[in-house]
Amino acid sequence: MNSARLALGALIADFLTQRVLAEPALPLDTAALASRLRPADVILVEGNLRISSVIKYLTQSTWSHAALYAGDGECIEADIVAGVRSFRLAELAHYRVRICRAISLTPEDAARVIAHARARLGAQYDLKHVADLARYLLPLPLPRAWRRRAIALGSGDPSRAICSTLVAESFQSVGYPILPEITHPHDTEAKARSAREIYHIHQTGLFVPRDFDLSPYFGIIKPDMPETFDHHRLVWAP
């Protein structure tokens, strides 16, 4: 039975990792990206796979994937087919990316974050989670309040990686937060609902790429932002 489920999960994973038509991205200057990166930076990626579309829909975000920069051009990610693996920056040349940097991480903690991710190399992706996500390829509307929780349907097996949870766990291993704790009272139902959602994320550990983008504990760096720019020197065509 388990072998049949694994085979089915592998087929679904193969289907979800096929490319789909997407707006072409400008070629990324990976040399400029490398010059801006520091060890333990989080790289958010706007993917162009079927599963990327699902994650972007469920999280209402541009970003569908997150990887951890380990230094010297090496990144670590949880890949659906290959599991937790390392790859080179050059593989990101055809994607839109954004850098999220922990604002108070020490070099010592950064090394521990990377070591935690490296220790997971070879771990499998949670194929039960993949099967659950596949249902959202159907063009059926899903209430906004249910979208985030729809991602929390995986098996929760700690030996298996899910999406950007690997990256979040690596930071949490040194006590670095991803999202803030909610402690103040909520004067509206909307605020209370948002607080319950954050509590749910903390409880399940199911973080998504958007959480790093919105987190107050991570700074945002655009890799293609010019180091020097003076709009007064621009020459506009008549």
Account of the protein in words:
This protein is of the alpha+beta class and 238 residues long. The chain has one domain (2-178, 209-226): endopeptidase fold (from Nostoc punctiforme), CATH 3.90.1720. It contains nine helices and eight strands. It has helices at residues 2-16, 30-36, 50-59, 107-118, 127-134, 144-150, 165-172, 189-204, 209-214, and strands at 42-46, 65-71, 74-79, 83-88, 96-102, 124-125, 160-161, 218-221. Strands 4-3-2-1-5-8 form a six-stranded antiparallel beta sheet. The protein has a two-stranded parallel ribbon with strand order 6-7. It starts with a helix and ends in a 17-residue tail after the last strand. The mean pLDDT is 76.
